[in-house]
């Protein structure tokens, strides 16, 4: 009987181990894979630059040692402090997407339009400050504008409008933090789209449960404690935001390959998101009017030496909509989609699993940035002279 019991115990242990073994193997393989990804990230661009490809570089400018180009709410204070330490001129705020901070085939000495425009307007007692994020949508611009206009003496807002970014929605975490600012909340509450953003982007988890109740609780303090210890002891844990980004980017590349998506694929309007972004644009311009801030609204440069990757009827309607909104709120409007010649556009690494280069429809070389700066400078001077 004792022998039977021992055999049963051994068999039970074997059964338990056979159930646990695949999990242990999976954990070990997962840790190994994360370690390899961590090594890869050490030798590549930051995650925010991955989608730009190897041919395109991000450039956030400094002038006279001070940052004049930042990303979003989370790093905004360094640009605000740089202004306060060096100038008392009015601020011209330029918001944008990756086109504003990216240079195709960047060479030594190249710079974006932001620092060129910053230096050009110094004689007019204006201080250009720029903020940009990849694929930035107009809802994000609205939130960031309300925050920055409460912190700086802004006299002009420069706002590009991009058809692609009208397909985006939601507020990224590095801008969502601005929703904790009382002045931002008070301003957003005055508009329908602002109320919607506050309701959908507040301190809630993925199930919609209120997360504010966790502030300074035992759970929050314990999570911070263990995260800090793990980050100091285990590099993979410290790198988890970048690792998560790398994984999502790899899935994005695989998706593009699976469905045959490339930069030349026709992108169509997503009606619900388009409406939200139009509402955010109108709310931004209305707020600017109330604050006495002039607005320069422009349709961004777009590669046109090949077929445009948009539904042409929808793209035409989009441009007409933006012009109508600009007229309604008395903003200065200019369409510079044909500004950059073919020679200043380049290519980028494939965004699918296949090798090779793809056309880049959004990012151009330094010569294109000089042209954009010169054009915006002329438009801003006309705006300063009182011409709409």
What is the CATH topology descriptor?
A: Rossmann fold
Radius of gyration, in angstroms, nearest whole number:
25 Å
Bulk shape: globular
Would you state the CATH class? Alpha Beta
Helix and strand succession?
A: HHEEEEHEHEHEHEHHHHHHHEHEEEH
Helix content: 40-55%
Total beta strand runs: 12
- Number of structural domains: 1
Helix and strand content put the structural class at alpha/beta
The low-confidence parts are: 41-47, 203-214, 255-261, 350-355
Count of helical stretches: 15
Q: How would you write the strand order of the largest sheet?
A: 4-7-5-8-9-10
Overall pLDDT score: 80
The CATH architecture can be named as 3-Layer(aba) Sandwich
CATH superfamily: SGNH hydrolase
Largest sheet features: 6 strands, parallel
CA(first)-CA(last) distance? 98 Å
Amount of beta strand: 5-15%
How would you describe this protein?
The chain has 388 residues and is an alpha/beta fold. It has one domain: Rossmann fold, CATH 3.40.50. Helices cover 52% and strands 15% of the residues. The chain is built from 15 helices and twelve strands. Strands 4-7-5-8-9-10 form a six-stranded parallel β-sheet, with helices on both faces. Strands 1-6 form a two-stranded antiparallel sheet. Helix 5 packs parallel to helix 15, helix 6 packs across helix 8 and helix 6 runs parallel beside helix 13. The longest helix has 41 residues.
